[in-house]
Every structure is written in C-alpha cells, then in structure tokens.
Design brief:
Elements (H helix, E strand, L loop, with lengths): L5 E5 L3 E5 L8 E6 L8 H22 L3 E8 L19 E7 L7 H5 L11 H23 L20 H7 L3 E4 L9 E6 L11 H15 L6 E6 L16 E6 L7 H5 L3 H7 L1
Antiparallel strand pairs: 1-2, 2-3, 3-5, 4-5, 4-8, 6-7, 7-9, 8-9
Helix pairs in contact: 1-3, 1-5
Length: 277
C-alpha cells in the first residue's frame, strides 16, 4: 500500500514531493501545484528551479550519480503499467529516479514488474532521508535565486501587449530536432533533442523547455496516438556532458488498443537500460 504524498519543497508554481508509492529512496516527483496554471515562460523557469534543486538535494543526501525522468502526457498508465509509475492524478507530474552506488534496488527493476507486484520503500526508510532532502532542496533553491556577478541574463521573451498566437510563439522558440531512433520501441517512438548541444536538464533554458513541450504536444496530436509515455535518461549513463552525452527525450505514442507496450521494449535498449537498471 502506498504512502500519502509527502511534500518536500514548494516553489511558486511547482512542488517536489515523495510519490504515494516511492519505488526507491531516490524516487521523487515534481508536480504542478495548481493544475490550471498555464505552461509559460514563468512556469518553465520555476519547473527548472525545482528540477535542479531536486537533483542537487539527491546528490547531497544520497550521493546520486545520475537522474532519469519519466512522465506521461495525455496518458494514464493502464493495467499492469509496465515501465511507468502509477498515475496519482491528472495533475502534470514528472517522476525523478536517482541512482547511487548504495541503492538496494534499481528503479528499472521495479518498473519492469506489474504495478501490483512492486514493493514500495518502507516509510521508516524514507524518513531517514526526507529531512535532509527538505533542507538541501531549500538551500539549492535559495542559491539558484541569489544573483551573482557571473549570473547570465535570463532568456526572457519580448514583452507584448497581447498574448501571441500559437504560430507566433512557436517562431520564438529555439529549434528542436525530432527523429526516430535506430531501433525504435514501437511505430510511434520519436527522440527529441534541443538544437543547442545540451548534456543535462540542468543546462536547459526556459525557452528551450517550452520548445520541447511544444514538440511533445505536436507528437501527441498524431493520428492513432492517444497520449505519450516519455523517458529522459540521464546523459551521464551515456558518458555525461564531458563524455559526449546529449539530452534526449524519448516519446512513445500510446493507445488503449496497442498490441504491445512499447515501454517494455524501451527498457531493454542500451541507453535506458544503463540509466534505470
């Protein structure tokens, strides 16, 4: 039986929390506080603040060496939910899975099991870490919000008196590459990559995050696709920014009538396998 969702940190628009069913001690989620909030430049910047603070907190408390993200877009896990965490609500939610040398079970090993056979982390084990995570989340967020002489100017969009239409907003976004991988996990498996060479989410700018979100929305609008399951493996599993790793978003088209669950295949691919297993 899962725990109640446990809040660890709340920013202006997003929050970092323990999921109701934490699959490992390094399993956190980023969740929109108000589901009616639009995903605009302010929301993207706040999401990045929460993500980067969560990564730093996991590094400081657990010694996490890589962090992979799993999320669904216009899709709720069905049945055994192989390859994806159980849905907690319709509120936009991103699951983070940290990996560290002392972990007792890998997140991929849990995700390959049917949801009813997964063993959540005991509450007493989570309590050993959650106090430190709260402290480090606040410390990392405060540090990120404190300007320094070397802090680059934010990529704020031009101020308009009226909200631009979809085409105008897309024209402002940085480029995103989209293509099928060499060994796709299904007929609707696409990999999205920012045009600028980026090795980790911590390097992403708000406008680049908005561009990726727009590309994901376009993929979700394809015929026969009812939603997407997305996995963002830590590029550290492929060598990291220093070793040539590049940020990739694996987007898998899903439908209730699909013959095979593409996530089962994706979990066996080298880049996902190294990141989660």
């Amino acid at each position: 039986m899962g725990l109640s969702r446990r809040l660890l940190f709340a920013s202006a628009l997003w929050e970092v929390a323990r999921p109701r069913t934490a699959l490992t001690a390094g399993h956190l989620l980023i969740r929109l506080s108000n589901p009616a909030t639009a995903f605009d430049h302010r929301s993207a910047a706040d999401w990045l603040l929460c993500h980067n603070a969560a990564r730093q907190a996991l590094v400081e408390v657990l010694g996490v060496r890589s962090l992979t993200m799993v999320f669904a877009h216009q899709w709720h896990p069905l049945g055994a939910a192989i390859g994806e965490p159980e849905a907690e609500s319709s509120t936009p939610t991103f699951h983070l899975f940290g990996r560290w040398d002392g972990e007792s079970i890998a997140p991929g090993a849990q995700l390959r099991l049917p949801a009813q056979r997964r063993l959540p982390v005991p509450p007493e084990d989570l309590r050993k870490y959650d106090g430190g995570l709260r402290r480090e989340l606040r410390r990392a967020a405060d540090a990120a919000l404190t300007p320094t002489p070397d802090t680059p100017a934010p990529d704020t969009p031009a101020q308009d008196t009226a909200a631009p239409d979809t085409a105008s907003r897309s024209a402002l976004f940085p480029g995103v590459r989209s293509g099928a991988p060499g060994n796709p996990a299904g007929p609707h498996h696409m990999v999205l990559t920012p045009e600028r060479r980026i090795g980790a989410i911590s390097e992403v700018m708000p406008l680049e995050l908005l561009a990726l979100a727009a590309a994901i929305q376009n993929l979700a609008g394809q015929p026969s696709v009812r939603g997407l399951s997305c996995v963002v493996p830590d590029s550290g599993a492929k060598g990291g920014a220093e070793g040539g790793g590049r940020l990739e978003v694996h987007a898998l088209g899903r439908s209730a009538g699909e013959d095979l669950n593409p996530l089962e295949f994706l979990l066996r691919s080298p880049e996902i396998n190294a990141a989660l297993l």
